[in-house]
Design brief:
This protein has 949 residues and is an alpha+beta fold. The chain has 31 helices and 21 strands.
Length: 949
């Protein structure tokens, strides 16, 4: 390009930007926001994956995350001096330093907590009489000479252990320390001595010189082997009876390792290397797993053995932690991809709508340039330069904001996403504009939907999209979002394809109801209704692009809101299933019963609306399955309602017996959202539940789970329980019980039991937690309090879950925002035409009020149809895709004891209805604003000579 041409283009671009600063600024803001969202998404994903990996490693038990290199004691064939030298701290430190350098990337060590030393791998019986013997069995102690004790502990009493002379295999005395917890439970005092049996001499005397307190008890130094910190009471594996004995660890001076070579406790050398997760990123997961694998049984292990000895082994649970993290990431990623594709599609359509709006506003100008000899290449180049001057800085600023505001993540995915936004805008606007001027056009043809007829090519494209949508929905319903090969884009794009098909169908069908409504309007007096409906059927605002943007945005907002609502509902249900009510009081032991005074005191607390005493007994032996293999209620049917329900007999041989007060339990079940409990059926009266006497002759009516009911059958069956021996007859079934988590249970009236004292109290209401615990504490320490709110708090989001939930919240907000923006753009696109119409009609006597009604009535039908289509599309998307989407990884993963049954999507009315209502409200507001503004301007301004509008 020549210098003269460049000089001629610069004033043109400046002139255009000065002429329309508002349009350029609006385009820049839109591109800025879209580029920010596009760049922030991959960075947000990287950030929560990185935080999730670090969280899983740092919060795991050190016994699982620490990499331990261990080898047996040096061989007996070696000279004594060589064997002793291998166990001294200097040599262990040298080997440990080389092991740290040999760790394969990205595995790195937390050098502040690295520990090494010599330990006994077999417990040594301590016969000192002052040591505790719970079942007359002496304790078995372990001994370890570990490095860094003084750096990781505080001296509480006595002195640090020392080695006045060089310790050898034949030494007869060494010094050691124990932790505060070990000293308290094993009755160890400063100055006490413990005899350590040895093979070359009678014993080695271990003198306890001090008691220490760990500075970080839960850190890897003390928790990689919990016995170093806390003793444990364990069962004797060699005894046929339940006999327990104490185990603990005595910590020797760091240079006292050689003395253990002379014992029969199988000493071993070890190096404990805790991982440093601060430098790990989410993308390091697969490399980290490969590094651990090579250490455990690959080239890395060979290198370790070159350093630590040919018999060294590497053991760690770090690989399992990384695999669990990868499984959660793989389960969450496809669900996140659904939101990403939805928002990305909406943003792309809105950007194309913006380009169409700008192209429409400049059609006359460019047509004039084309008629005066302007080439398509020259016009396109000028438009590209104009657009790039505005779009590229906005794109760069959006990328910069995403980099600064969103947490750590890779830079290049965000840069590519932001560049894609900028490229789309820079290319789409010049391309769309120039394609309209391939041939010079005289005047502006009408582009209403009445005269436009779908071409065959369009029909083929629409049918192809329909086939793709059906395939994607079918695949998602059958196999879900998770695939072995990663995220399937076709499956993840199912909501987008459903919205696309709905938009195309609505574009073809929506003129029909408007035409039908025009006929009765034509018979009425006044032209406002007829004109508004007639124009609504012809308006270009009802084109495919605005409707597609609206339906995509509304469907994405509804889908994202349903995901967020489903996560919250699943956690609420899991907390309720675990506790059974708003609060639960039970004994710490299964057989502990609650005294009447405690029940009465707790029931009278402020905030308690209902108290249901329940007796729960687990492990009730069930008889063999009944021959009829079905249960019936007292009226000849099963279930809490009437009718017959066939159920498969449970394979379990045991069930839980739940003794309840029918009235209070029915209220508790109702408050917990369970099906209505038929309390009247548990009354021991009537033909179905007769009382034939005491003992096993009593026939008690029970309500059972479907599997237990099918196993017991219709006839009375005998049961033996700790609550008494009796015969039961199933009079009804229910899927869930408020007091127990097992799926197999029987519910009986506790007043019919020989021993019916409650073991659990279910409370409904909002009692003060402090007062509740104080009231329970008055009965002793053998009772525990569980609160539904605290159980719900257990489902604290891991960084990965929290990040995914934030993305869906952003999807809801962005979907709603883009929906409103699509409405605004579609109305702005036809604003000049409406202003001209009002000006012409005012010359014919149309009043200002009638003009406002005309514009409102014209825009409202389209808005209502689009909002209705969006509601239907959002609902259909959730209904079609819910069988294939499981929200367990987002809602309940990582919480021990939580219910892991599938959590499906649930329609959230707020996220479904609010954006749709906002579309209608914004349409009416914009139409009213346009009418008001047009009424303030004179007709001469709008009706210019030669204007073709």
């Amino acid at each position: 390009m020549s210098d003269g041409k460049r000089a001629s283009e610069a004033p043109w671009i400046r002139t255009r930007l000065r002429t329309a600063p508002g349009a350029a600024s609006a385009l820049a803001v839109l591109v800025l926001v879209t580029a920010f969202l596009a760049a922030a998404f991959p960075r947000a994903v990287d950030a929560y994956e990185t935080k999730g990996l670090r969280h899983d490693i740092t919060t795991a038990a050190p016994s699982s995350s620490v990499v331990e290199v261990a080898r047996p004691q040096p061989g007996l064939e070696l000279p004594q001096e060589q064997r002793e030298a291998a166990t001294r701290s200097d040599e262990l430190a040298r080997v440990g330093g080389e092991l740290l350098k040999a760790l394969p990337a990205p595995l790195r060590a937390d050098t502040s907590s690295v520990a090494y030393g010599v330990r006994t791998t077999k417990g040594v019986v301590a016969t000192e009489p002052w040591l505790p013997r719970p079942d007359a069995v002496p304790p078995r102690l372990s001994y370890a000479a570990q490095s860094g004790i003084e750096e990781h502990a505080t001296l509480v009493a006595g002195a640090w252990p020392a080695t006045p002379a060089e310790v050898t295999e034949k030494s007869g005395a060494v010094q050691g320390v124990v932790t505060e917890e070990t000293a308290s439970l094993l009755k160890v005092k400063v100055g006490a001595t413990i005899a350590l049996p040895a093979s070359l001499r009678k014993t080695v005397t271990v003198t306890i010189t001090g008691i220490i307190a760990p500075r970080d008890p839960l850190g890897s130094y003390w928790s990689a082997d919990p016995l170093m910190r806390s003793p444990s009471l364990v069962p004797d594996p060699e005894s046929p009876f339940p006999v327990f004995f104490w185990t603990g660890t005595v910590l020797l001076a760091k240079d006292a390792g050689p003395v253990l070579l002379g014992t029969a406790a199988e000493p071993a050398l070890y190096w404990r290397i805790p991982p440093d997760a601060t430098a790990l990123t989410g993308t390091d997961g697969s490399r980290l797993r490969a590094s651990v694998a090579t250490l455990e049984g690959g080239p890395g292990l060979l290198k370790v053995r070159e350093i630590a000895g040919g018999t060294a082994v590497v053991s760690t649970g770090l690989g399992h932690l990384v695999e669990a993290n990868a499984r959660m990431r793989d389960a969450i990623s496809p669900v996140i991809a659904v939101a990403a594709l939805g928002i990305g599609s909406v943003a792309a359509v809105v950007l194309l709508m913006t380009g169409a709006l700008i192209a429409g506003r400049r059609r006359a100008e460019l047509a004039l340039m084309r008629s005066r000899g302007g080439s398509l290449r020259g016009i396109g180049g000028r438009l590209l330069a104009e657009t790039a001057v505005t779009v590229l800085p906005a794109t760069a600023l959006g990328l910069l904001l995403a980099t600064l505001l969103v947490g750590e993540g890779r830079w290049w995915p965000g840069a590519l996403a932001a560049a894609g936004v900028g490229l789309l805008v820079c290319v789409a606007l010049p391309l769309r504009t120039t394609l309209q001027h391939i041939r010079p056009v005289l005047g502006t043809p009408r582009e209403d939907m009445v005269s436009a007829r779908p071409s065959r090519r369009r029909t083929v494209v629409e049918l192809t999209l329909l086939v793709l949508a059906v395939a994607a929905v079918t695949a998602l319903r059958r196999r879900g979002t998770s695939t072995e090969g990663g995220t399937d884009l076709l499956v993840s794009a199912a909501p987008v394809l459903v919205a696309l098909i709905a938009a195309l169908v609505l574009v073809r069908l929506h003129p029909l109801p408007l035409r039908l409504a025009t006929r009765p309007m034509a018979r009425l007096r006044g032209a406002i209704g007829f004109l508004s409906l007639a124009r609504a059927g012809r308006s270009s605002a009802g084109g495919a692009l605005p409707l597609l943007a609206l339906l995509l945005a509304l469907a994405t907002a509804a889908f994202g809101g349903s995901v967020v609502a489903g996560i919250g509902d699943a956690r609420d249900d899991a907390a309720l299933a675990s506790v059974g009510a708003d609060a639960r009081i039970s004994g710490r032991s299964e057989r502990t019963t609650l005294p009447e005074d405690l029940v009465r005191t707790v029931s009278g607390l402020d905030g308690v609306r209902n108290a249901a005493p329940v007796r729960v007994e687990y492990g009730i032996a069930l008889p063999e399955p009944a021959s009829d293999a079905a249960a019936a209620d007292g009226d000849g049917g099963t279930g809490t309602g009437s009718g017959t329900e066939a159920g498969a007999a449970t394979a379990s041989r045991t069930a839980a017996l739940v003794g309840v007060d029918p009235a209070s339990y029915a209220r508790a079940a109702r408050a917990a959202g369970l099906p209505d409990f038929p309390a009247g059926r548990l009354r021991p009266s009537g033909a179905a539940a007769r009382t034939a006497g005491d003992g096993s002759d009593r026939v008690l009516p029970v309500i059972a789970s479907p599997g237990v009911a099918a196993r017991l059958g219709k006839e009375p069956r005998a049961l033996k329980t700790l609550s008494g021996d009796f015969t039961v007859r199933v009079v009804g079934t229910t899927e869930r019980a408020a007091a127990v988590s097992p799926t197999d249970f029987l519910i009986v009236d506790s007043r019919s039991l020989e021993r019916g004292a409650p073991t659990t109290l279910l409370l409904t209401g909002t009692p003060d937690p402090g007062k509740l615990r104080a009231a329970v504490a008055g009965g002793g320490e053998k009772y525990a309090v569980q609160l539904r709110s605290e159980e719900r708090a257990r489902y604290v989001d891991t960084p990965m879950q929290a990040g995914a939930e934030r993305i869906y919240l952003t999807a809801v907000a962005a979907g709603a925002g883009y929906a409103l923006l699509a409405v605004l753009l579609s109305l702005l696109q036809t604003a000049p035409e409406r202003k001209t119409l009002l000006a012409r009609l005012r010359t014919m006597g149309l009043t200002t009020a009638q003009g406002r009604r005309l514009l409102a009535f014209e825009a409202t039908p389209q808005a209502v149809l689009a909002a209705g289509g969006g509601l239907f599309t959002g609902w259909a998307t959730i209904a079609l895709l819910s069988p294939g989407i499981d929200l367990v990884p987002l809602a309940l993963a990582g919480v021990a004891g939580s219910d892991t049954s599938p959590v499906t999507l649930r329609t959230d009315l707020w996220s479904l209805g609010l954006p749709a209502a906002g579309v209608v409200a914004l349409t009416a507001a914009v139409a009213g604003g346009q009418a008001w503004w047009a009424s303030r301007r004179g007709s001469i301004t709008e009706l210019r000579a030669g204007d073709s509008r």
